[in-house]
Amino acid sequence: MGYAVTQFVPNAFLPVYTCLICNGIAVTPLVLKCCDALVCEDCFKQMEKCTKGCTTNFKAKPLSGPSKRVYDLLAINCSHSPSCSWCNSLSTLDAHLNSECNFHPLPCSNRGCDGMVVRTKMDDHRKECSYRLCECMYCEENIVFLEMGDHYNVCPSFPVSCPHNREFFCPIMPRSALNKHFEVCPSVVVSCAWLAFGCDFVGKRSEMCSHMQTSSVPHLKAVKRKLVDLNPIEKEQIDLVQNEENNDNEKIEDKDEENSEPLLVLSLKRESEKLGNAFQVLQSQLTNKRIKLENFKSEYKKFKDQFTEMGNETNGLKKRCIDLGKENATLKAKIEKCEQANKQLIEIKNESNVLKKKIEKYEKEFTRLVVIENFKNRTAHFETANFTISGLEWSLLIYPQGIDFDNHLSVFLTVPVEKQSPFGWKRKVKFTIKLMNPLEDGFSVTLTASHTFYSEEVNSGWPQFIPLNDLLAKGFTIGNKITFEVSIN
Questions:
Q1: 26 with 38: CB under 8 angstroms?
Q2: Which of 68, 417, 444, 483 would you call most buried, defined as having the most Cβ atoms within 10 angstroms of its Cβ?
């Protein structure tokens, strides 16, 4: 599809570059060899034959030579006009759109995002894009924002609670520490430590102490049976002893009851006593462990409360971090604006310094100071020494006691007699005379006038420049002198 004709600055050459198919100004123009007609490259790809009826040599070649140079120099407005005011040659349009135009849509740089955003809003889009990379607050890994929820389900540093938290108030911990916690968790179902000796008890770890206390005798007997099963020779000896005891029992059946107790019973009694002693030792050990367990439970409860408070604080800090992130983005934008404003201020300051130097140069060229010594001793009018401004000679005519008006200082700008031209001279100027006050908090008197000086009008000024009372009382004559600043333009 070609460019719209209205996009171009009116030009007599525009009809020459009209596409044969789309009637727009051709984009990447090609010349048909059959009839020298001009078409867009994309339009040519869709053509099967020439629309003018040509039957031979249906091929195309790129536009070249002077025609191509004129085509490149066609003045065109930006594709986003009137929002964009750019206007330049056609050959620079693509470079403008790809690198300069603030209204041209660009693809988002985040992987997976297929959105098109104008250049001026790209920074805001990247901050809100669902495919932007964000740092996980737990493991500090960069994750796509859209996948952050799934990442939390597998994050090794994500805080999780034990599945048995309801019964024993297990603390919140990172997911990677959960398996290690199961090795000591009181609610995990485990097998008896005497499983290898035949005890098939299965229960929670918190129930194991009670089981060990009530099953100590069966455990010892199970150990004995296991040892016998592992040593066949010992088993034969035990069977032999039992047979002998049986024979002895048959022989002493007629004896008194005090001496009729079988040897096997005696051995069982001795074993029972040993087991009783062992049971007492185990019972005392279990009592000590029970006390330690109670102490551990109380400490565990304290730690659990602390971890709960820490969890609440963590959630608060998480929200605070999010808020700080937003504030940081806002401050960053403000800092960027301040930096731009600072650059502008520096430019203004530089321009101000240049202007100040020009003003100083101007003032030096068009301004002079006239100092009158021993002013209080003067009563008659007098003319000051000549001074030069812009190549012309001038002087001040002073009446200390006033002229026409008593009690006033009269001041006039005059052209010295020796500098007056004999042939119809004229000087048309605008001048300012300022009476300087040496006191810091004192005020100065400044008067401005315009006048054309010629042979019959060589003076111009003010008969009532300042009352003499103000002149003497307000600090103008400190040091018995007065100072005038004369500016002539």
A1: yes
A2: 483
Q: Per DSSP, what are the bridge partners of residue 61?
A: 31
What is the band of 325 on the pLDDT scale with cuts at 50, 70, 90? confident
Q: For residue 72, give the nearest of 57, 44, 94 by alpha carbon.
A: 94
Q: Please tell me the least confidently modeled range out of 124-133, 190-199, 351-360.
A: 351-360
Length, in residues, of the chain: 489
Q: Per residue in 78-122, pLDDT tens?
A: 988 888 889 998 889 889 988 889 888 888 888 888 888 888 888
The residue whose two tokens read 């890994």 is 141
Q: Which of 190, 189, 165, 161 is nearest to 175 (CA)?
A: 161
Q: Which of 104, 101, 77 is nearest to 89 (CA)?
A: 77
How many Å apart are CA 211 and CA 190, to the nearest integer? 12
Please give the helix or strand (H or E) that residue 246 lies within, else none: helix 232-251
Exposure string for 461-474, b = 16+ CB within 10 A, e = fewer: bbeebbeeeebeeb
One-letter amino acid of 158: F
**Residue 141 C-alpha from the chain's centroid:** 18
User: How buried is 394 (Cβ within 10 angstroms: 0-12 exposed, 13-18 middle, 19+ buried)?
Assistant: buried
Rounded Cα distance between 378 and 395, Å, is 17
pLDDT at 433: 92
Determine the Cα–Cα distance for residues 458 and 292; give it in Å rounded to an integer: 119
> Reduced to 3 states, what is the DSSP secondary structure of residue 398?
strand
- Phi/psi for 292 (5° steps) reads -65, -40
CB atoms within 10 A of CB 18: 17
Q: Is the pTM of this model over 0.85?
A: no
pLDDT of residue 165 exceeding 50, the answer is yes
- The letter for the amino acid at 160 is V
CB neighbour class for 93 (10 Å; exposed up to 12, middle 13-18, buried from 19): buried
What confidence tens digit (pLDDT) does each residue in 176-194 have?
888 888 888 887 888 888 8
Q: What tokens appear for 337 in the block?
A: 């604006």
272's tokens: 């029972």
The two tokens of residue 90 are 């056609």
For residue range 397-410, what is the model confidence (pLDDT) as tens digits? 999 888 877 788 99
Least confident among 35-39, 237-241, 295-299, 381-385? 237-241
315, burial (CB in 10 Å: exposed 0-12, middle 13-18, buried 19+): exposed
Query: Cα torsion for 395, 399, 403, 407, to the nearest 10°?
Result: 140
Structure token pair of residue 27: 């984009």
DSSP class per residue in 158-187: SEEE-TTHHHH-PPEEEGGGHHHHHTT-TT
